[in-house]
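Tutorial handout. Part one gives the primary structure; part two gives the three-dimensional structure as tokens.
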Amino acid sequence: MSLADFFTPISVQDFCSGTDFYNSQFGKIIQAYELSFPDLEDSEKKPHIALVGVEEERASVNNGGTKKSPNAVRKHFYNLYQGDYDVRIADLGNIQAGDTIQDTYIALKTVVEELVKQDILPVIIGGGQDLTYAQYTGYEGLEQRVEVAVIDARFDLDQDHVENTPLNSNTYLNHIILHQPDYLFNLSNLAYQTYLVSKESINMYDKLFFSTMRIGMMAGKLDQAEPLIRAADMVSFDISAIRASEAPGNANANPNGLYGDEACQLARYAGMSDKCSSIGFYEYNPTFDPMGHTGSLVAQMIWCFIDGFYSRKNDTPVIPKSSYIIYRTTLENDDYELVFVKSKKSDRWWMQVPYFGSRSVNERYYWVPCRYEDYQQAVGGDMPDLWWKTHQKLQ
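Part two.
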């Protein structure tokens, strides 16, 4: 079965704000599925990034209308200008809602899996955030541990009914956490608002050694979130994490949340990550966006992600030692030497964490993205919380 079988074509001209596109606008550059499906095999034409629209809204709680979001975003995105780099982007069209919502999930799972296998990064434009589960299951056949970063004002968990919970945009994390086979290594929830999250959910994250960062910790220091995003294989962005004054196109919008420029910066962090292999933008509802401001913001977030993608440094520490600086420190009364590396290309930091119980000559390590502050904490004699959480999960 060809990937083309999962998609319906689009008409680029429907997204043109004038009579035509200029040469440097995306509408002129993108390989769009109109008459023929983009070539994903030819090495000279193979895209680096593929736009994937999903016209599904049945499990988007209290936010019916999200199925209209892919084309609404295209109307803004196609009119944006590319940055100072050559882009190879394909628009594969839209996955239509299946006869059942499970059909939609299977279609998206298959598309994500095939694109990631071919080293093509899918940018998913949903649809409800329940599609994050289908995005996640796309990694099931890739035989790798997966780290997930969710940018959301809430934890989409049903803490009272952990098992046998219907899958929707408020409970999809239950299904990711309980999914078998279990290949989830870490889950990070960024920009959450404490008064929208139960203390039981926060305690559950702590017990599972997952990562969280509330919106107050990010205010004025957005770079604090960068290492958690850099660690993720896949990113899911709920548009309701952005405050209603900046993004009114969501029935569940909140008065507080991220500013538009902060949302764009987080998207750029994801694009810059060597590890990120898929991203989804969910819960945008054009029904509540008559002026198109939210659609324009989502388009700009995708632009920032692409800008970050073409700014990647490929400096994750599996590279020659001459490409980074190594720092070592030992905590008092501790068996482990803490090793940090700093990339000479980007000034980004990683921390080396040994696998649990590994004391052999060929000791194995896991590289965790971290901040300079984590190194300072270790030098000051305190074990970074990130090191301890990661070490516990490497059992």
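Part three, for discussion. Confidence is low (pLDDT under 50) at residues 358-362. The two ends are 39 Å apart (CA to CA).
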